Structures are given as structure tokens and as C-alpha cells.
């Protein structure tokens, strides 16, 4: 299926590895020019090299990388000023930031909450503010926010994430149904369950240190609670993201798309 987005420009945040890289890879394979961003320069450059090697088709999409902290005004300015990039005239924006650390809510002070809200709510809003009016003027735009399955089924030890990402979800629900919808701009949230990424491995390692259980046992227990009986892959996630960015998804906006192998037990 031709997704109809070859030649468009996309900003993909948190794209040095994991789900962000999976999204960038899927877009590049569709001929989308991408600016990828993450804080780690070496890892990001390596990701850009992989993407350039993975380009397909006659368009040979451009791949630019900007190592910067997207949660800061300086980081956002650097992304918008990328040499050879589109400035603020992105057609597609995929927001993504690493989740806040797990823990007991009794241990989180105000600064911890501010960091979580800044990274997982306010930064996506800043990127939306900076790009959607240009999208509307051109008659096409796609915003995809990578959030979390915890938006639908909160996880007790992920209170920082539950709170910050739920705030973004409420904001997007309103903006997606504004006049932007009639001007070809869609805003959706993509909610990952458990995927085979460094984050799940790091959380398993932390649990192992606390309980003494082997990491393999902890990961196996997670898999047993997923009807699909496996973790998702970044490429699967990226394919969903690319579809939401496509011309075929023009009638989908304001939605929370859950990708979790059937783990969420609810009907709605």
C-alpha cells in the first residue's frame, strides 16, 4: 500500500533507538524525509546511518539528525534550525520522550513532577504549537504522540507517567476536534504496551536487583500476561505510526490507538 506521504518532512523525537527509531524507519521506507532527534549524539548518528542504509525507492529520502534535549527551548530551536531541514514546516511530527522513572508516589517531590510534566506533556504541546498552523495552511498535517498503555490502564509504580501523559491525552482530545480537523490536520496518540526495547529490559533489571529474581524469569512473567504471548517489536509499532501519518488515515483524529498484544482487558 502506498501511504501517500513520500517527499513529506517528518520530525521524529527520541529516535536514536526503540520505538522512536522504529517510527523513523517506517517513515523513511515510505520515502519521507526525516529529522531525527535524541540527546545522545553518538547513538543518534549511528541511528541516522542505519536509516540512510535502509532507504528504499527512487526518492532516497533525506535523513538529518540533531542531537539535542527536545524538552528545552534551545533543543527545539536546534531542531527547527537543522541545516537542510524544513524549519518549522514539518508535515509530520512524532513526539516521544523517555518515560519518568517508576517508584512510590510518596518519594516524588515537586521537582520530579515538574520534570515529568515538562517532558511528557508540555514538550509535545510546544511542538504542536510550533507546527500545526503551518500544517493547516498547507492542508496536510499529522501529529502522533507516543504515550503509554498506562493512559488506559494506569500502573501503580508509574504514577509520574500516568499523570503527565494523561494530561497530554486530555489536551490532544480537545485540539484534535478544533478547526484543525477540517484543514487536513490530525492529532492522535499511539499507546505502546510492552515492547522489546531497552526500557523494558532496564525495568526488569531494576526488579531483579530488588527481588533477586533472574531477569529472564521476570521477562517471562511479563510475556505470560500478554495474550499474544510475546513482546511487540519496534518495527510493528513503526508501521502503525506510519499508517496514522498516511493519507489513508485522514478520517482518524483525536484517538488513542492501543498496541499491546491484547493485554488491556477492557471492552472500550
UniProtKB/TrEMBL annotation:
It comes from the Bacteria. InterPro entries: NAD(P)-bd_dom_sf, SDR, SDR_fam. Belongs to the short-chain dehydrogenases/reductases (SDR) family. This is SDR family oxidoreductase. It comes from Rhodoferax sediminis.
